[in-house]
Structure to design on (434 residues):
């Protein structure tokens, strides 16, 4: 039996996620207001038809960084509405798929978050997931009137935040509710205990004022690329969303994650890693390439520059549009991760225009072709990387979502690589199914 892939889709509750300008193309339902629930409900029903493990909502608490005007003008991941509020609307029209919303550990007290996701776990019948992020943008810190804490401090605080949430979720024994009509006792107080947490960043007495869920605690998702980020993922997460540009880079990323899980006393299989990919599929290769071209052509140049700066940390406002990326590498002393990866993947002669446009259309490896070609490539990445599956980079196009679910998923199912149906009821059961 071939190993099966876990599948998911990632998007943002706004006009754009990583398909900058995608909303301009005819595939997007501009006649419907994305701020209302129906388009998202349609999307998650499509994903559930494809038996995906999860629909994953990324989030930010402000505008992305410089240049702010272009970020807003071209909707570079802005605006983004609160995905937590959307989850119950999605749960109401689905019954199996996991529903993940992002919430940051940097600007709030963990008690509120523990309460929010415990409530969502009941409401979704075990399908809620919390994507733990530490929020790295200055604009987000400014929205809270504070200085952006240093990278290491954000992760230290994030780990403690997760610990407090987990302690609060276990502050009730499963059989604490007695609901005894005769005595009038609702709960046995001996089975509901304070957590008395007094840490470096937080204090919380507890117990949580939400009863424990029969589905267990919320599923924890996370993404971190740095060694420190991966350590937190290995420590805290049930599922990790990873982006690397080729299997040669994916393999060590996955190995390090599993090694960190073990270092924190967990089994390496307790944490799944799903790779972000941007799939363009058509009934013919030409149709698939046309889909990709349509999205590449929809990216305005200033928006591609903004997205590129945002994702590489390199300011390219003054750089020639046709300048080879190799020149940028030579002159820039900042973070090279994505620049290096793009140059390696696209060749040393790749220009800023090509790299910036490509990374503005699904900031992940592109997989383009017929259903068979896409399935071949996904299988290759899956085997070579040792990962557990894929997250399809998605914006709010039901047409694009359906193209993957109706063309690629059946091909993966035929090959025994994707589930034919859900065997479990909850998100955690889906993740543990294989
Ligand atoms: C695939 C992926 C998805 C992410 N999604 C979000 C997100 O939705 N919201 C957010 O604030 N940060 C998000 N991040 C940023 C991470 O949470 C983290 O802050 C960032 O990667 C910097 O940490 P690092 O240095 O460990 O990589 C994402 C990162 C990756 C790699």
């Amino acid at each position: 039996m071939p190993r099966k892939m876990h599948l998911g889709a990632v998007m943002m509750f706004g006009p754009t996620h990583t398909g900058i300008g995608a909303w301009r193309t005819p595939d997007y339902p501009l006649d419907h207001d994305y701020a209302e629930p129906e388009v998202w409900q349609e999307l998650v029903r499509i994903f559930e038809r494809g038996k995906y493990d999860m629909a994953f909502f990324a989030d930010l608490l402000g505008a992305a960084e410089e240049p702010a005007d272009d970020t807003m003008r071209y909707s570079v991941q802005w605006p983004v509405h609160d995905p937590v509020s959307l989850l119950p609307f999605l749960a109401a029209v689905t019954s199996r798929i996991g529903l993940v919303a992002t919430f940051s550990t940097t600007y709030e007290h963990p008690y509120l978050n523990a309460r929010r996701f415990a409530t969502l776990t009941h409401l979704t019948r075990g399908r809620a997931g919390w994507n733990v992020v530490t929020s790295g943008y200055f604009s987000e810190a400014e929205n809270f009137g504070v200085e952006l804490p240093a990278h290491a401090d954000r992760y230290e605080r994030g780990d403690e935040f997760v610990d407090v949430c987990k302690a609060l979720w276990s502050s009730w024994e499963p059989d604490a509710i007695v609901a005894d009509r005769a005595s009038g006792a609702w709960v046995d107080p001996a089975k509901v205990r304070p957590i008395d947490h007094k840490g470096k960043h937080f204090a919380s007495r507890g117990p949580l004022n939400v009863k424990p869920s029969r589905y267990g605690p919320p599923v924890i998702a996370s993404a971190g690329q740095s060694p420190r980020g991966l350590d937190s993922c290995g420590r805290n997460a049930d599922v990790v969303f990873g982006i690397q540009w080729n299997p040669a880079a994916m393999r060590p990323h996955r190995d390090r994650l599993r090694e960190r899980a073990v270092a924190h006393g967990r089994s390496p299989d307790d944490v799944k890693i799903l790779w972000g990919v941007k799939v363009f599929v058509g009934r013919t290769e030409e149709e698939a390439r046309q889909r990709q071209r349509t999205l590449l052509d929809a990216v305005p140049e200033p928006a591609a520059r903004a997205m590129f700066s945002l994702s590489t940390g390199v300011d390219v406002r003054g750089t020639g549009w046709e300048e080879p990326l190799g020149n940028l590498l030579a002159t820039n002393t900042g973070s090279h991760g994505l620049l290096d990866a793009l140059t390696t993947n696209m060749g040393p002669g790749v220009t800023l225009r090509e790299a910036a446009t490509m990374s503005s259309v699904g900031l992940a490896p592109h997989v383009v072709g017929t259903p068979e070609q896409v399935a071949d490539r996904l299988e290759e990445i899956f085997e070579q990387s040792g990962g557990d599956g894929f997250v399809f980079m998605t914006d709010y196009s039901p047409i694009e979502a359906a193209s993957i679910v109706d063309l690629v998923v059946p091909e993966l199912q035929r090959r025994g690589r994707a589930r034919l149906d859900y065997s479990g009821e909850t998100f955690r059961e889906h993740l543990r199914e294989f």
The chain has a mean pLDDT of 93.
